[in-house]
Amino acid sequence: MSSGGIRVCLVGATGLVGRAVMEAAVGHDHVRIIGVARREAELPRGARMELLVGEPIDWPALIAASSADVLVCALGTTMKEAGSVEAFRAVDHDLVRFAAEAARAAGIPHVILVSSVGAARASRNLYLAVKGETEDAVAKLGFRRLDILRPGLLRGRRSPPRPLEFAGQIAAPLVDILILHGRLRRFRSISARHLARSILSLAREKAQGRFVHENDSLRRFARKGGD
């Protein structure tokens, strides 16, 4: 850990989760966020951070320049946004792996990867299969600690908005309470704000190994992250 606190390199800083992490870090003087993104973004008021902007080909140099203790990878898209299977895979697998490889080369020992509930290489669902394959690819890089986050539906305001997902967010709290119990609890929705708190909490963890976090674990770390 750096003498000035934890330095977190945040890849995917302009997305829903990335913005939530930046906002959650405000007021936490022990955390320094260094965002990496393709475009400029407005930083939260009071943010103690910087944003490094460049094309993905430049990201290894930017990730190395962050001198981070932890890489948080919040990259992700949808099939509809990507426009094709190939374009979707290029972001959710290839670009994620590229960023993780850059972190490994830069000597960053800890990676926090935002994936999805149900992710599994053998899944019949293409989205979940790619997510599972990505998890396995990052795990093979041999980080001292790897936290894989598998949230359910993420609640929060996206830019640009996703109409179908917005409708799901409205219904999600009721579905969580009435239907998603027992083994189905892992599919419960979670706000981007709570997920961000989980990420900041996990960034302080020191145990070595590979850890998978679903809804209950994410909420537990979110409570710790609010301290």
Overall structural domain count: 1
Q: Based on helices, strands and strand pairing, what is the structural class? A: alpha/beta
CATH topology-level name: Rossmann fold
Q: Report the sheet with the most strands, covering strand number, pairing sense and barrel closure.
A: 7 strands, parallel
Q: Any idea what the CATH architecture is?
A: 3-Layer(aba) Sandwich
DSSP helix count? 8
**CATH C-level category:** Alpha Beta
Task: Tell me the strand percentage band.
Answer: 15-25%
N/C terminus separation = 19 Å
- Radius of gyration, CA atoms, in whole angstroms: 16 Å
Instruction: Provide the CATH superfamily.
Output: NAD(P)-binding Rossmann-like Domain
Using the alpha-carbon principal axes, give the shape: globular
Catalogue the unreliable spans: none
Q: Taking all residues together, what is the mean pLDDT?
A: 88
Helix content, binned percent: 40-55%
Give the helices and strands as they follow along the chain.
EHEEHEHHEHEEHEHEH
In which order are the strands of the major sheet placed? 3-2-1-4-5-6-9
Strands, total number: 9
Which terms summarize this structure?
227 residues, alpha/beta, 7-stranded parallel β-sheet, two-stranded parallel sheet
Task: Tell me what the structure shows.
With 227 residues, this protein is α/β, with parallel strands linked by helices. The chain has a single domain (6-225), classed as Rossmann fold, CATH 3.40.50. 41% of the residues lie in helices and 18% in strands. The chain has eight helices and nine strands. It is globular and about 40 Å long. The two termini are 19 Å apart. The mean pLDDT is 88.
